[in-house]
């Protein structure tokens, strides 16, 4: 039987106390049937043969193993005869581009073991280990304790991403109402944020079913001591979901506001241009009239020039004052 190589991480708890970590998977698997033992096995980029060998040892379903090896699975929780299989995504927002990066994580939850499977090391498993070490008094709750620490870190990444996106959107709102906004940059950033929110929504919304499914009584995974902690995670999932939906509406509103502001500015410019065109049309009309090749009053006389000049100034000035009073200029 092929076991995963040195890339695997392991922990062994006995009666709620951390007894060993970093043991080879082969040695850890031998304790599966020991009373009071809870195991954690983390596999980073395992081959199909390596995961199949461990699946035979733990009795994992072939469909669950297939899902763990194939990327881009939807966040979900499936129940099999001997174990639960969950798929989730941790996320991180790139502050420079506003794009959302995600890393997929699969987990097999058995009666005595939690097996996590990752395609790569983008998900920081050290955060999960640190979360477990922060609450060693809960280790007596068994595999549920390990599952809680894992989900807590995943959901925290969702919440942090939502908070970061909220700050980006607030900055975008300030730019919309700037005196001289960069419309091209605003459109680019709004589109990037909208794509990130769509991705985050696909990741966050299904987590309600995942966490709620783990809290079901028939799974016997969450005991009375862990229930408040899982409820807290579920509350964070709901808040992240609602926040994501509200941010999507905010981005759409910002885009509509930007278009309305652009339209208002264009109307203002057209109004001013039209007003000045009307003022300029007056001297053009007067000089055009007196430019006819026919005699007219004041033709060839100095007073005719001064009368026409005065008429142009008076009419142009009258239009300017009228337009100014009506805020057309």
Automatic annotation (TrEMBL):
Belongs to the CorA metal ion transporter (MIT) (TC 1.A.35) family. It is found in: Cell membrane. CDD domains: TmCorA-like. It comes from the Bacteria. GO terms for molecular function: cobalt ion binding; cobalt ion transmembrane transporter activity; magnesium ion binding; magnesium ion transmembrane transporter activity. SUPFAM superfamilies: CorA soluble domain-like, Magnesium transport protein CorA, transmembrane region. GO terms for cellular component: plasma membrane. The chain crosses the membrane at residues 273-291, 303-323. Keywords: Cell membrane, Membrane, Transmembrane, Transmembrane helix, Transport. It is a multi-pass membrane protein. This is Permease, MFS-type.
